[in-house]
């Protein structure tokens, strides 16, 4: 299957790295435009008088920029067409909005595999994206096979997994 635009959501957790690898591999195989997105959850500290991000939000944003660049590096080094996007808000809603805006034909997202009370209390971004997506969704589990395809390992960013 060929894709033209792929939205790839990451939260920089261990569970998101297989999804990042998979999304980059699919983009490389399809020649697709890749939108690598990270959403900083609200509430964020916005200064009431100026509207500027307050100190904790600024630090979160700067850290997210650094992490997105690290996550994107393997794909950029291999010539992928990639946007790096950082948004503020509800992760599922922002990923869905971005998919609609970019007319994406695939969303790739990882899952933590939470169950029971934890899932109820924390919620599931992947589940909400699956329910509301305007396109196909590929949910990649945290565990990846012992033997991943060589092509996928080219998009590994081991320094992020520490």
Regions with little confidence, pLDDT below 50 for 5+ residues: 116-122
Q: Report how far the terminal alpha carbons are from each other.
A: 33 Å
Spatial order of the strands forming the largest sheet:
3-2-1-4-5
CATH topology value: Rossmann fold
Mean pLDDT metric: 82
Order of helices and strands: EHEHEHEHHEH
- Tally of separate helices: 6
**Helix/strand-derived class?**
alpha/beta
Percentage of residues in DSSP E strands: 15-25%
Tell me which CATH architecture applies here.
3-Layer(aba) Sandwich
CATH superfamily assignment?
HUPs
- What profile does the largest beta sheet have? 5 strands, parallel
Name of the top-level CATH class: Alpha Beta
Summarize the amount of helix as a percent range. Answer: 40-55%
Radius of gyration: 16 Å
- The overall number of domains is 1
Number of strands: 5
Shape: globular
